[in-house]
Amino acid sequence: ENGYIQSVPWLLSNKELEKAIELLNTGYEKTGSLQILKLRSEVQIAAGKADDAIAGLNSLEDKDESIQLLIAKAYAAKQDYESSMKTLRDSIMQDKARTQSYISLAGIHAREDNMPQAISVMQDGVNANPDDVKLRVTLAGYYERAADIDNAIQQYEAILVNNPDNLLANNNLAALLSDNRTDDASLKRAKDIADKLKIVNQPVIQDTVGWVYYKTGNYADAVEVLKQVVTAQPDVQVFNYHLGMAYHKSGNNAEARKYLEAALASDKDFPGRADAETALNSL
Questions:
Q1: Cα dist. 248→216, 259, 271 in Å?
Q2: Which of 8, 105, 275, 277 is the most buried if burial means most Cβ atoms within 10 Å?
């Protein structure tokens, strides 16, 4: 089994998909290995032979989640999204603990910009698996895309009940609270989270920390944190924007201009671009 599987990466790197499929056909015939069948299906999908992948996978009597996901992927490769969604719904009906099936099904709805349906699928997933962090994070992300900030916040808070140190939930919750709430309790919650995250040496996390400090009026602290963020990743527009705004509120207009101009040097959009332009024009 391992010999067949280990031979495939070299063939794929040389774009020899047909040879890889032939090799895996032989391997599957000789061993009946599920791993070889799954790898063959992936290569068939990549080679534009989704029907062959579906036929091979459907020959199995017992289909676990990984097999159903592959069948759904093959249908999606053919742009047969109805069959892909039906496969995923069937997978969930077989076992409501199949968390990736919810995520994949919701993802198809989201790609079609059907956010209410994507959210509905993820709500079902969370209701069936309330302790699954990945499901709640995915649902929170869809709530954010739908501009339903209160429900997004609720999901992150629910994660932190049992996972108080979850970095992603803490980071996103602090950002949402500071960007969308103005009451003292919410801003204090965001600041407390930021203080806890300050030891995490990741630019994205530190950017959130600095921006929370900015949003809560701690401009000197914001400048100190955001300077390090921009030093680490000087080409990220939103990081320059945040540092420029922190300098602006601190009264250092020369530095504010420098970083706001850096943020606006590219035509690419970013959250806060209009505010950056307004602030720059006011200097």
A1: 15, 10, 18
A2: 105
With tokens 């970083």, the residue in question is 259
49: helix, strand or coil: coil
Task: Tell me the C-alpha to C-alpha distance, in Å, between residue 213 and each of 118, 200, 225.
Answer: 34, 15, 9
**What whole-number distance in Å separates Cα of residue 9 and Cα of residue 22?**
14
Report the chain's C-alpha Rg in angstroms: 24
Q: Are the CB atoms for 152 and 143 separated by under 8 Å?
A: yes
Report in angstroms the alpha-carbon separations of 28 from 6, 33, 35: 14, 6, 9
Beta-strand runs (E) in the chain: none
* CA–CA separation, 42 and 1 (whole Å): 16
Give yes or no for residue 63 having a pLDDT over 90.
yes
Instruction: Quote the crossing angle between the two packed helices 133-145 and 149-162, to the nearest 10°.
Output: 160
Query: Alpha helices of 163-252 — where are they, by DSSP H?
Result: 167-180, 184-197, 203-215, 219-232, 237-250
Cα angle 63, 64, 66; round to 5: 110
Q: Provide the angle, in degrees to the nearest 10, between the axes of the packed helices 17-31 and 2-13.
A: 170
Structural contact between residues 210 and 242, judged by C-beta atoms closer than 8 angstroms: yes
- Residue 260 predicted with pLDDT over 70: yes
| pTM listed for this prediction | 0.88
- CB count in 10 Å sphere of residue 146: 15
